[in-house]
Amino acid sequence: MKLYVYDHCPFCVRSRMIFGLKDVACEIITLPNDDEETPTRLIGKKMLPVLVTESHDAIGESLDIVKYIDETYGSSVLTIADYPAIEAWMEETTKLIFPLAIPRWASADFEEFRQDAARKYFISKKEAVFGPFPRLLEQTAPLVIEVNAKLEVLELLLSQQERDTGHFSLTDIRLFPLLRSLSIVKGIKWPLKVDAWRREMALRSQVNLNDNIAI
Predict the structure, then answer these.
(1) C-alpha pair distances (Å), 94 with each of 6, 10, 119, 121
(2) What is the CA 37 to chain-centroid distance, rounded?
(3) Residue 212 backbone dihedrals phi, psi, to 5 degrees
(4) From start to end of 25-177, where are the E strands?
(5) pLDDT grade, residue 140 (50/70/90)?
(6) Can you name the residues that pair with 58 across neighbouring β-strands?
(7) Of 52, 53, 28, 215, nearest to 111 (Cα)?
(8) Strand pairing of 50-52 and 58-59?
(9) Is the whole model's pTM more than 0.70, yes or no?
(10) Per the CB 3.0–4.6 Å rule, which of 54, 67, 183, 200 could disulfide with 210?
(11) Are 15 and 3 within 8 A, CB to CB?
């Protein structure tokens, strides 16, 4: 199998996680961000992740990839129901996370941006949606304050959960990539249980955090 991804992309992180959680072998291929030809050839549009299965079928939605791997290889590990309160937390907090993470991704040393043209492509596309990156970076201080307050709420929500070792929910698959996205932001204060949870998930899923390159 081959999984085409961008390292920074939270949707790609979702798909990478299931391979680590289930210890299923897969070749991870990071495409340059301006490579439109490869995903378009595989699924008809410029979007990642894309999984090419052992039977050479292409799957192009992150949660479809997660479901396919979980159901096809060994016993399911996604046996826990979604957590509505955490799903609601993500809905509220995502709009704070991306304005912090996206301009930082653009200046980080991710493989998909190693070519100057690929980095410029990303910046052009994202600034058209989110506005100029310098303006986003100027908003860092108030956004970080808001996010840190949201993380205290998440701490309480995680404390209320009863964890089942080795079993996970789709909420976990959605939450970890958002927290990984935040890990590239300096000034984030990780509450104890949130920090322990994200580190455990990074270890179990074999997807690194970005604390070491935080900007």
Answers:
(1) 19, 11, 23, 23
(2) 23
(3) -75, -15
(4) 27-30, 50-52, 58-59
(5) very high
(6) 52
(7) 28
(8) antiparallel
(9) yes
(10) 183
(11) yes
